[in-house]
């Protein structure tokens, strides 16, 4: 069955892979990554990317958000977290530190914060492109108009991350307030693609009301979109959201989806997300063994890192960035991969 996986798959066959008919859901993750599905995923990633793991310096520059996604701790109605914004100078300083530690891509992430005008975002992007020639700038600042996306691209932004969260309109409506729609999310992704960005889609595994058919729809949607990056992490409830009491997504389900995505999207850049590190102490390493090939060490200032909390118990919020980065490099080497100094563009 594994050999056939690059060909067309029926919905039933895909569902079997997603749901984990074999290996079973309760297989220990360490054994799971040795199963045929995961070995095949690792072989595919090695064929395209060798043993390289691309690192991106993550800078979370504002935790303000105008939206109220029901799963997210940064939602506007959460009045219990202190809010912060970094200045342009602080953002550049974070990127400087990331560069010194071998990062050649900077990911600038924030909630949808109207304080940062298009003009300001363009100014930040062009400052970084001037100061760090040859490096890539990735933006992750939410849903914008096509004109805004075009202006960031013209200023030098290379990539854009916008998880679609779920391709199913009904499911999307259960996770978001009525002023947000799956249609607009998808339109944003297609706008970004048409403009020329390397585009990242993605989703949470185990989000409230999610069914295996939704995951199937996600794969079908991404097969049509052909994103360059796919972010997958488990749903982790945040205590100050309407979904506080929902159970978290499981590590195994998440790893299984990473493996399936690697096989279906051999060229995609797939991060071993920090959320995986929350559900298991070696969650990120296991994801790399399941086919992921990107890590995103956090270079936000220590003083603000603990305030960027879309979900509870985020990892990497303490400890000096350089030391965290060094530990990550060592742990990646320990499982047979290499965290490389490379801009890490998608290979098509
Ligand atoms: S998921 Fe993004 S857009 Fe939604 S509330 Fe959180 S930061 Fe804002």
Gist of the model:
The protein has 348 residues and is α/β, with parallel strands linked by helices. It has 14 helices and 9 strands.
Topology:
Blueprint: H1 11-19, H2 29-32, H3 36-49, E1 52-55, E2 57-62, H4 88-100, E3 105-110, H5 118-131, E4 136-140, H6 146-155, E5 159-161, H7 169-175, H8 182-195, E6 198-205, H9 212-225, E7 229-234, H10 251-264, H11 274-279, H12 283-289, E8 294-295, H13 302-305, H14 321-334, E9 338-340
Parallel strand pairs: 1-8, 1-9, 2-3, 3-4, 4-5, 5-6, 6-7
Helix pairs in contact: 1-9, 3-10, 4-5, 5-6, 6-8
The structure holds iron/sulfur cluster.
Iron/sulfur cluster is lined by residues 65, 67, 69, 72, 74-75, 111-112, 142, 310.
Fold and architecture overview:
With 348 residues, the protein is α/β, with parallel strands linked by helices. It has a single domain (2-340), classed as Aldolase class I (TIM Barrel, Alpha-Beta Barrel). Helix content is 41%, strand content 12%. It has 14 helices and nine strands. The strands form two sheets. It has a six-stranded parallel β-sheet with strand order 2-3-4-5-6-7. The protein has a three-stranded parallel β-sheet with strand order 8-1-9. Helix 5 links the parallel strand 3 (105-110) and strand 4. The two termini are 25 Å apart. Iron/sulfur cluster binds next to loops.
């Amino acid at each position: 069955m594994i050999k056939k996986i690059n060909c067309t798959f029926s919905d039933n066959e895909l569902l079997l892979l997603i749901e984990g008919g074999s290996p079973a859901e309760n297989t220990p993750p360490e054994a799971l990554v040795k199963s045929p599905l995961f070995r095949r995923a690792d072989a595919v990633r090695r064929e395209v990317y060798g043993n390289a793991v691309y690192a991106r310096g993550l800078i979370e520059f504002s935790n303000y958000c105008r939206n109220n996604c029901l799963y997210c701790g940064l939602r506007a109605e959460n009045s219990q977290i202190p809010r912060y914004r970094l200045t342009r100078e602080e953002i550049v300083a974070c990127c400087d530190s990331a560069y010194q530690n071998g990062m050649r891509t900077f990911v600038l992430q924030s909630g949808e914060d109207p304080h940062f005008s298009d003009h300001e975002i363009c100014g930040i992007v062009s400052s970084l492109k001037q100061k760090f020639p040859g490096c890539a700038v990735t933006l992750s600042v939410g849903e914008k108009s096509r004109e805004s996306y075009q202006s960031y691209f013209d200023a030098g932004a290379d990539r854009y991350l916008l998880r679609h969260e779920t391709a199913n309109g009904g499911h999307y409506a259960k996770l978001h307030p009525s002023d947000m729609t799956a249609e607009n999310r998808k339109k944003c992704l297609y706008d970004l693609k048409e403009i020329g960005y390397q585009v990242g889609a993605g989703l949470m595994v185990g989000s409230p009301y999610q069914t295996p058919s939704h995951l199937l729809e996600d794969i079908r949607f991404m097969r049509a979109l052909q994103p360059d990056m796919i972010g997958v992490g488990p749903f982790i409830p945040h205590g100050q959201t309407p979904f506080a009491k929902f159970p978290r997504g499981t590590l195994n389900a998440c790893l299984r989806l990473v493996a399936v995505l690697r096989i279906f999207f051999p060229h995609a850049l797939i991060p071993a997300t920090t959320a995986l590190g929350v559900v298991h102490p070696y969650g990120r390493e296991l994801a790399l063994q399941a086919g992921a090939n990107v890590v995103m060490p956090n270079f936000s200032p220590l003083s603000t890192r603990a305030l960027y909390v879309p979900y509870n118990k985020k990892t990497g919020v303490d400890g000096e960035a350089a030391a965290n980065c060094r530990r990550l490099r060592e742990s990646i080497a320990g499982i047979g991969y290499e965290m490389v100094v490379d801009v890490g563009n998608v290979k098509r």
